[in-house]
């Protein structure tokens, strides 16, 4: 475990916000010219790493997220191994719900499961609110990380209101989101009240991370790709916008990413993020046209291609770098998270390829 786990570190005075003028990730996110192409990976800390499996032995997912020393160590592991250009706080979409007092747990092989689904106006009114004290362990993990990371930026993380709402309404993961879509259309007032409450929760969660010292934030919308653009604009976009614009005063880069959102990229580009994440389903040059000017892009290697061998990976990495040159800024990433069975050496090769590539 890193020295961040010592009692002395936990009681240190929080330093002033770091100034990282040479960080390639921050330069690209701000559409400035970086010293090299930056790269990091969603789910870079996790089951693909043997050191992660070792340190997580005997600890539940939410327990790990809410134990500062453990969350710090897990966040640092891929930075040590790969030399990526950003760390992302080890957390989970449902952590702020758990911290607020919602009955939710992460069940192995299933995912988040909600004890009492939220499906009526009364259920929405009964939702507990989150305060900064409730996520004090997360803030402490950020403070530990800021001391450990040196010149590597730290990205804060939260799930978007729509994805949180979907888990609450469905009671867990859903293939078709039928209860969620039914509520959205049959009781739009209840739906907007739910998403408004979750936007408050998300802002509180991200603000706690910002105040503790993160250098950027990512708003992750796992299930937005299940929606039509019309429904997204009317029923989801206002709430994601409130979260992202609610952080505008921080001056930190804001990333907005969703899965299966190729047809939503134009709308997502309007939500207020500085960087729009793109999954593997659409080329980055096409995504740049859809998102429009004034935004950097992040992405978008298909994580399954990491299993195809070095020649395929090199070809695809170079293709994505070429397509990403059409964006005003480009942060290389996967088009979704690292798959559990991924060979860590394949990710190491991607980092080397990206870092050795010429700047556009």
TrEMBL record:
GO molecular function: uroporphyrinogen decarboxylase activity
Superkingdom, natural source: Bacteria
Major enzyme class: lyase
Transmembrane residue ranges: none
Known function: Catalyzes the decarboxylation of four acetate groups of uroporphyrinogen-III to yield coproporphyrinogen-III.
Subunit structure: Homodimer.
PANTHER family for this protein: METHYLTETRAHYDROFOLATE:HOMOCYSTEINE METHYLTRANSFERASE RELATED (PTHR21091), UROPORPHYRINOGEN DECARBOXYLASE (PTHR21091:SF169)
Chief location of this protein within or outside the cell: cytoplasm
Domain Uroporphyrinogen decarboxylase (URO-D) stretches: 38-47, 155-171
Catalytic activity annotation: uroporphyrinogen III + 4 H(+) = coproporphyrinogen III + 4 CO2
InterPro entries: UROD/MetE-like_sf (IPR038071), Uroporphyrinogen_deCO2ase_HemE (IPR006361), Uroporphyrinogen_deCOase (IPR000257)
Record flagged with keyword Ion transport: no
Family, as annotated: Belongs to the uroporphyrinogen decarboxylase family.
Organism: Actinomycetospora cinnamomea
Pathway: Porphyrin-containing compound metabolism; protoporphyrin-IX biosynthesis; coproporphyrinogen-III from 5-aminolevulinate: step 4/4
Gene it is expressed from: hemE
Enzyme Commission number(s) of this protein: 4.1.1.37
UniProt xrefs under SUPFAM superfamilies: UROD/MetE-like
Protein name as annotated: Uroporphyrinogen decarboxylase
GO biological process: protoporphyrinogen IX biosynthetic process
Binding site for substrate: 43-47, 92, 167, 222, 336
Residues carrying the site annotation Transition state stabilizer: 92
Pfam families in the cross-refs: URO-D
Gene Ontology CC entries for this record: cytosol
Keywords: Cytoplasm, Decarboxylase, Lyase, Porphyrin biosynthesis
Compartments, record wording: Cytoplasm
This protein's record includes keyword Lyase: yes
Lineage: Bacteria, Bacillati, Actinomycetota, Actinomycetes, Pseudonocardiales
